[in-house]
Amino acid sequence: MEVAMSDNHWQITYPQGMIKYVDFFRNELFQYEIYDAVVQKYINKYANIEVNKLCALGCGTGRHEVQLKRMGYEIIGVERNRESFPVIEAVFRENGVEPISLVEADFFDFELLKKKLKSQHFDCITLLFVPLSIEDTVKLVDIFEYFLKPGGLFISNQFIGYEEGFTPNITLCDNDYAENPLQKDLPYKEREYCVRLNTYKYKKNLIDWTAVYIFTDENGVVRMERDHDIIDVLLKDEYGSRLKSTNSSMELLPLYEVNEISTDANMPKTKDCIVAWRKKN
């Protein structure tokens, strides 16, 4: 994956054919059912309207959206990588859930969004597990205020601080193994699998994460691809300042530290928190 960066912005682009293998690890490690139940509780607590219609930004391979659809939400997913669409459809079939509507769009392109979303308005907008900078997350809050109903929420997640006793300015390495979740009924030797080698360079307010994926692709060719993410880590005393929207209609809500998931489902050594903004009535 290539990461195009400036000081406060980065854009993620996966190599062709890679997204399916990345999803092996999402399915294996992320505890979506637990995490999205926490998201629902947050919605119920802080939304000032009944939440039925939801827009999922960066819906990726659809695993958050499967859980949220099961909860009864009507969902439109916005994803700029069309290669994700067949993976999303397979994930919904695997889980026996009716598919959601999908829109291909760069969610920083306001005029394109108005055209693609036909100026619809939503009760809630989610941006979950999408590796954007804090500055770009706040920019999306400002953009999507237009599509949000008064009293509705814009919900994201953010890593805030490190585990107690952990000091950054260190490099850690580990490795993972994951199989194709759609092939769990096949004999062990016939399942697609992927090995991932991780290097995390921890700094005060970000993690530079490089992952090397080794897998056999659909043509039987052994491939090795590099994936590079920049993960912002927000210090708690920066919460009110760096996450404040420039749009006076959007008020920043209290953060919620997600302790319900295991550390294996998280970026190592970090604290995952739900952060949200509410559009004023």
Automatic annotation (TrEMBL):
GO terms for molecular function: methyltransferase activity. It holds the Pfam family Methyltransf_31. Residues 54-160 form the Methyltransferase domain. Keywords: Methyltransferase, Transferase. Gene3D superfamilies: Vaccinia Virus protein VP39. SUPFAM superfamilies: S-adenosyl-L-methionine-dependent methyltransferases (SSF53335). GO terms for biological process: methylation. Transmembrane segments: none annotated. This is Class I SAM-dependent methyltransferase. It comes from Agathobacter rectalis.
